[in-house]
From TrEMBL, chain A:
Protein name: Methyltransferase type 11 domain-containing protein
Organism listed in the record: Protea cynaroides
GO molecular function, one term: S-adenosylmethionine-dependent methyltransferase activity
Keywords: Methyltransferase, S-adenosyl-L-methionine, Transferase
Region annotated SAM motif II, chain positions: 196-204
Gene3D superfamilies for the chain: Vaccinia Virus protein VP39
TrEMBL record, chain B:
Biological classification of the source: Eukaryota, Viridiplantae, Streptophyta, Embryophyta, Tracheophyta
Assembly behavior: Interacts with TRM9.
Superkingdom: Eukaryota
Family the UniProt entry places it in: Belongs to the TRM112 family.
GO MF annotation: an example: protein heterodimerization activity
Biological source species: Protea cynaroides
Name of protein: Multifunctional methyltransferase subunit TRM112-like protein
Record CDD domains: Trm112-like
Gene Ontology terms describing biological process: rRNA (guanine-N7)-methylation; tRNA methylation
Length: 354, 112
């Protein structure tokens, strides 16, 4: 008596049910669960789910507009990015706040992949290493090709951008990996794969684009085979404290401006992801804040944009890219204010028993 | 804890056939103002067990909700939505307990 207690905090509606479920199961040992709903209300729930969960977007039309915006942003800006930064479209992992040259950044991006795999505990052992990988939000396939080469595995990448998918495939062919990696245009909220196909589910900086985090995580879990690693590296906002219902107005303001330029739906916190993963009964859930290790990245991107090559490329690419570039100082501001976090969340799907 | 949350929880104690709804023992409750969002309320309505909400609200001292589960036309009434909003989102159980309806097991609730 009195040894168990329930949190009274519900930080955000995104995954609030799962937050409650996770805290109650942690604290009370599965003595409380979500009630079963009758079939008709589950059906209604799925129809209306978009409206509830996609906090920033209006249901239906909003999601389509967002997807189109994402596809167009990357169609437009991918070439320019690749030109200056190479084929990895994610943050680099740095030791400390040193000014690095572009080549240092490229190796930092490789290091990000390696540190991520290490954090998750992915084995290089020939028996245990991944053989079937999915790269969710694959960009031009940097991670896919790297992982395929590292493990000798097959990798499939999905992106909303036709330009990226095509470029990813060309690069794969050019690098002799056409038999190991393939790319297609597809929606991460509706992955075109059967259940349990992959033993490594990789989402490197794509989670921030997903308007329905619940569906996004469900799909990651669905396509994961028993024993698979699920790895999410993404931008989040800071965790809310128990007394908070939501972020402060100025914080929301800043995020909204960034959302606008990068075609991002409403942000969530890494705690929200943990709760979603817990709701799927996944094991070995680990989360970390790597904001300090990526600190040099945005200032470096800004510097690269201000070079002659950067400016001319931006002008050639188009308005969406320029808008994106203008939003970069906002990202720096967000990190400085400890509002934006660079988070890694990893877990494993349980093995089948017997 | 909001009543929205309470409405989603059920006792999972082994052997219990119907653990929903959990009864409320209210020691300390408070009302916190929450921005009124009619779209959210309309979306949530179909997921809510109405009787459980009415009973829970009553145990928190709020008896304004209609006993009968309203039909969808009520969802257009601002007056109804405001009552629904208050009960669902603004009433908070700060201290007390949730009680399994079959076993009587208490789950204490306190401020985190």
């Amino acid at each position: 008596m009195g040894s168990t207690s329930l949190f009274t905090c519900e930080p955000s509606f995104l995954g609030f049910q799962n937050k409650l479920l996770s805290t109650t199961t942690c604290e009370t040992g599965s003595l409380i669960r979500l009630r079963q709903r009758n079939p008709t209300s589950i059906h209604i729930r799925q129809r209306r789910r978009r409206g509830v969960m996609a906090a920033a977007a209006a249901p239906g039309a909003g999601m389509e507009g967002l997807k189109k915006g994402i596809a167009e942003l990357y169609d437009e800006s991918s070439g320019m990015w690749e030109d200056i930064w190479g084929d990895h479209m994610h943050h680099g992992f740095y030791d400390s706040n040193v000014t690095s040259s572009i080549s240092d950044h490229r190796s930092a991006q490789i290091r990000m992949i390696e540190e991520t795999l290490r954090f998750a505990g992915v084995s290089e052992d020939p028996i245990k290493k991944p053989m079937a990988i999915v790269d969710v939000g694959c960009g031009i396939g940097g991670s896919s090709r790297y992982l395929a080469r590292k493990y000798g595995a097959k990798c499939q990448g999905i992106t909303l951008s036709p330009v990226q998918a095509q470029r990813a495939q060309s690069l794969a062919s050019a690098q002799g990996l056409a038999d190991k990696v393939s790319f297609q245009v597809a929606d991460a909220l509706n992955q075109p794969f059967p259940d349990g196909q992959f033993d490594l589910v990789w989402s490197m900086e794509s989670g921030e684009h997903m308007p329905d985090k619940t569906k996004f995580v469900s799909e990651l879990v669905r396509v994961a085979a028993p024993g698979a690693f699920i790895i999410i590296v993404t931008w989040c906002h800071r965790d809310l404290s128990p007394s908070e219902d939501s972020l402060q107005p100025e914080e929301k303001n800043l995020l909204n401006k960034i959302c606008d330029s990068y075609y991002l739906p409403a942000w969530c916190s890494s705690a929200d992801y943990v709760n979603l993963l817990q709701s799927h009964s996944l094991q070995d859930i680990k989360v970390a804040d790597w904001s300090e290790y990526v600190a040099p990245f945005w200032p470096a991107v800004i510097r690269s944009a201000l070079t002659w090559k950067g400016i001319t490329s931006l002008l050639r690419s188009g308005w969406k890219s320029i808008k994106g570039a203008l939003a970069m100082p906002l990202m720096v501001e967000g990190y400085k204010k400890n509002l934006i976090k660079f988070a890694i969340i990893t877990c494993r799907k349980p093995e089948l028993i017997g | 804890m909001r009543l929205l949350t309470h409405n989603m929880l059920s006792s999972n104690i082994k052997g219990v056939s119907n653990g929903f709804p959990l009864r409320l023992d209210v020691e300390n409750s408070v009302s916190k103002e929450v921005e009124f969002n009619p779209d959210f309320l309309r979306n949530m309505f179909s997921k809510i067990d109405w009787k459980a909400l009415v009973d829970a609200a009553r145990s928190m001292g709020y008896a304004e909700l209609p006993e009968e589960a309203p039909d969808s036309s009520m969802l257009d009434s601002d007056e109804f939505l405001k009552k629904f909003h208050h009960a669902l989102l603004e009433l908070h159980l700060d201290e007390g307990a949730l009680i399994c309806p079959e076993t009587g097991r208490r789950f204490p609730v306190n401020k985190a």
